[in-house]
Design a protein that fits this description.
By secondary structure, this protein is an alpha/beta fold. The chain has 7 helices and 4 strands. The chain has a single domain, classed as Rossmann fold. Helices cover 44% and strands 12% of the residues. Helix 4 links the parallel strand 3 and strand 4. It is globular. The chain starts with 8 loop residues before the first strand and ends with a helix.
């Protein structure tokens, strides 16, 4: 199933395969409307993801005003510096529709800390989003995402999840 680019939708651009696995796990929650979310192929690094946003995806933002994009990156234990760098390099015209989330270090450490597969972690995170909970989201390796998660949920939750 593919997204309708003319309706509200979320593209997820993962930095690497581990982040892609978590994003795919998010899609496993039965409440996620898969027709409104698409996980893109891994960019090959957080800077490449950001470069892709500026080059490849910029035209899509002009053409499709309902598009949102989530950069799913590793913060490599440099959260503040990386958040500032990304914020400074996202074009101003796109900032309100671009979101950045990721593990404080890297997904592999998060997987080890949770003792779960990355897809299972992604599915749990989706469940918490659908239920407006932040149990796993409050984990030490994810808690730096809190403000961005609130901003993202406010924007995408109405079209990303089935209402009960």
């Amino acid at each position: 199933m593919s997204i309708n680019a003319y309706k509200p939708h979320l593209l997820v651009l993962p930095e690497d395969d581990a982040n892609r696995e978590m994003a795919n796990g998010f899609l496993l929650d039965s409440r996620v409307l898969m027709c409104n979310m698409q996980v893109l192929p891994p960019a090959g690094g957080w800077k490449k993801a950001l470069d892709s946003l500026q080059s490849k995806h910029a035209q899509g933002f002009l053409k499709y005003p309902e598009r949102r994009l989530l950069l799913l990156i590793d913060f490599d234990d440099e959260v503040s510096a990386r958040q500032a760098y990304v914020r400074d390099h996202v074009p101003a015209t796109m900032r309100h529709r671009v979101f950045v989330l990721g593990v404080c270090s890297e997904p592999e450490r998060f997987r080890a800390a949770c003792n779960q597969k990355l897809e299972a972690i992604g599915e749990t995170l989706a469940k918490e989003c659908a239920e407006s909970r932040q149990d796993l989201w409050a984990h030490a390796l994810l808690m730096h995402n809190e403000a961005e998660l609130v901003r993202l949920a406010t924007d995408v939750k109405p079209f990303l999840f089935q209402s009960n």
